Amino acid sequence: MYCAVTKPNIKDLNREELESWLMGRREAPFRASQIQKWLFQKGATSFSEMTNLPVELRNALEEEFSISRPAILTRREARDGTIKFLFGLSDSLSIESVLIPERERLALCISTQAGCGFGCAFCATAQMGLKRNLRASEILDQILESRRSLSPDSRITHVVLMGMGEPLANYPQTLRALRIMTDSDTGLAISPRRITLSTVGLVPQIKKLVEETQVNLAISLHAATDDLRSKLLPVNRKYPLAELIECCRSLPIPKRRRITFEYTLLGGVNDSPEDARRLARLLSGLRCKINLIPVNPFPGSAFQRPAPAEVERFRETLCAKGYQVNIRVPRGDDIEAACGQLHGEQNVMAGRPSRLAAAG
Ligand code: SAH
Fold first, then answer.
1. CB of 354 closer than 6 A to ligand 1?
2. Confidence category of residue 256, pLDDT binned at 50, 70, 90
3. Best of 161, 196, 198, 232 to mutate for ligand 1, by most ligand atoms within 8 A of CB?
4. CATH number of the structural domain 71-335
5. Which mutation among 96, 108, 120 tests ligand 1's pocket best, with the greatest number of atoms within 8 A of CB?
6. How far is the CA of 123 from the centre of ligand 1 (A)?
7. Three-state secondary structure string covering the chain
8. Is there an atom of ligand 1 within 6 Å of 295 CB?
9. Contact present, 355 and 127 (Cβ < 8 Å)
10. What pLDDT was estimated at residue 255?
């Protein structure tokens, strides 16, 4: 008997890898498509369900691979309909995903790492530190398991890689997951136009991502001077603003698409009219959208949300310079599901307090 946890998860293999495994066993390579359709389109959770495969092949797959799944530890619904899932991974770490209904859209915000090592000053996930990178299967399972829990008439229309972790610091597994997400033949068939990846600003990986995929790019900016940005986002010391913005200007992004810049508004820190004018100058000539996110508080955080009038003034300053600006309304903040509030609360409940909980 094999122990399930030691067998590789079949959802971590891409189609080419499955094909070569099949060919090594003198099986037809087209079986790889059948297997992937079962996994990603029909949501199979066992090889015995794969009734169009010969029984011997099903048995061989069973011996070689697992189809392990994360456990849904909690599913909490906020007053505004936002749903936060806490998933338990096989090594007892936990990660969060957030389903955000909005008019005709249903967006799922997924995690790419357990914890995060970038130490952004205003983010709850940063307080945990990096536990580990997620595997492609663990990134995809957040979509598969959330989808499974929905009523048959609702569909996830958009995916945003804005949950726990820095997707570009886990580039190979994130790319592998994106390939399966966007594969319209045997994968999840989500259009890359409906996928947005948010990054803290890792310049070399941004260039690679734009070369290798068609997904939308969002960049966490949060400050328009190096001095302030380095205080808020320590990664700025490695990739300072000039280099990051130059990279954005040189990206081969199609005319109709735009980079999104995220700017979390921190009362009294980066929200003055002068900050808005500096931001406008920094981005001048770039085809972009700006998302303003009034900071979401979490226990132990020192930052304050600016008054609505300040937020509006910031927006107007940018609009007057011709920018397209959205103010992101906090979603699910009563269940700590909003931007920057994810911290894998199971760690706290399991009596292993995160640094955040210990400090709070
Ligand atoms: N690591 C990626 C994606 C995760 S966070 C990144 O940095 O882009 C998604 C967005 O939420 C980022 O723009 C992040 O800076 C922002 N954010 C983090 N903490 C926040 C908070 N407390 N309030 C509002 N936005 C926050």
1. no
2. confident
3. 198
4. 3.20.20.70
5. 120
6. 6
7. CCCHHHCCEHHHCCHHHHHHHHHHCCCCCCHHHHHHHHHHHCCCCCHHHCCCCCHHHHHHHHHHCECCCCEEEEEEECCCCCEEEEEECCCCCEEEEEEEEECCEEEEECCCEEECCCCCCCCCHHHHCEEEECCHHHHHHHHHHHHHCCCCCCCCCEEEECCCCCHHHHHHHHHHHHHHHHCCCCCCCCCHHHEEEEECCCHHHHHHHHHHCCCEEEEECCCCCHHHHHHHCHHHHCCCHHHHHHHHHHCCCCCCCCEEEEEEECCCCCCCHHHHHHHHHHCCCCCEEEEEEECCCCCCCCCCCCCHHHHHHHHHHHHHCCCEEEECCCCCHHHCCCCCCCCCCHHHHCCCCCHHHHHC
8. yes
9. yes
10. 82
CA dihedral 245, 246, 248, 254 (to 10 degrees): 140
Residue 343: which pLDDT band, with cuts at 50, 70 and 90?
confident
Alpha carbon 347 to chain centroid, angstroms: 20
Query: Which two three-digit tokens encode residue 108?
Result: 């799922």
CA distance 272 to 223: 11
| Tokens standing for residue 67 | 């189809």
pTM of the predicted model as reported, rounded to 2 decimal places: 0.94
pLDDT digits (tens, 9 = 90+) for 304-330: 999 999 999 999 999 999 999 999 988
Place of tokens 């580039």: 171
For the chain, the structural domain boundaries read 10-64, 71-335
* 143 touches ligand 1 (CB under 6 Å): no
Would you give the distance in Å from CA 170 to the centre of its chain?
Answer: 11
The correct answer on CATH 3.40.50.300 for the domain covering 10-64 is no
* Whether residue 96 lies in the annotated active site: yes
